[in-house]
Amino acid sequence: MNITNSPGAQARIANGFFMNKTFPIRKSYAEMIAQKFGALIETYDFRQAGKTAKIIDNFVSQKTGGKIENFIKSDAVEGADALIVNAIYFKADWHYTFNKNFTREALFYHSADDKGKVNYMNEYGRNRMYAENEVVQVPSLPYKDTSYSFNIFLPKKRFGIDELRTKLDAATIRNLLSRLKSTHLDQISIPKMKLEKDYDLKQALLAMGVSDLFDRNLADLSMISEDHLYVSDAKHRAFIEVDEKGTTAAAATRIKIYRKVSREIHPRIQRNFIADHPFIFILTKDKNALFIGQFI
């Protein structure tokens, strides 16, 4: 999947491998990540944790258009041998923008006992790419660069988000996206959104059964260095803003690496699509996921 700027979208992925000046990285690994992933490889004195953290944080901020800041702090550097950083940025205008004059405040049903008012972007009487099954409705909203789309997975049951999460596996997502077809929608109502959240990737990966990486005795990162390495921590931050004009999204991940000796997310059918309860969204490039999140 090629992520580059185009006339209709600003998009970039940046990778960085930042290591302590005493870290013995394999030359073959450094060459591979530089050539294959375009990774920036730099060496710093990790004893100056505050200074080094600021340099790496500036890298993340620059690559995400200033949307993700203060992500790398001194505690991420202290005691580490290396930090692997990944950042992704996306900004694009809709292929069909929403008319601001149609934006209205209305209720959003967060749960059975919690509701509140949000601003909805509204559109009337337009053909959209759309699919559904017995559980979910899926409109796909293209950007000016139509290889990118914002896909909303809205459970048909108002409070069916938990059930949807269990049923929305990779195969189901692929199937739904493959069945998108032009469908007349009388009304589309989608909340304007601005979301930012931090995630503990270590705990998420452990819950998925990925544990060897974090075990100093079982981790095998021998492709990186002759020293015995393991991952001590992994953090992720995501940002997304959706309005009448388009979408801005950014995400950053940092992985903290220790040496073993160191300390320790065609029929034209008339329908309405009213996203007034929790849903999942996936921003795709050629139907490959770039960002996945939920609005609750």
UniProtKB/TrEMBL annotation:
Gene Ontology cellular component list: extracellular space
Record-linked PROSITE patterns: SERPIN
Pfam families attached to this UniProt entry: Serpin
Family: Belongs to the serpin family.
Listed GO MF terms: serine-type endopeptidase inhibitor activity
TM spans (from-to): none
Serpin domain location: 1-296
Protein's recorded name: Serpin domain-containing protein
InterPro entries: Serpin_CS, Serpin_dom, Serpin_fam, Serpin_sf, Serpin_sf_1, Serpin_sf_2
Superkingdom of source: Eukaryota
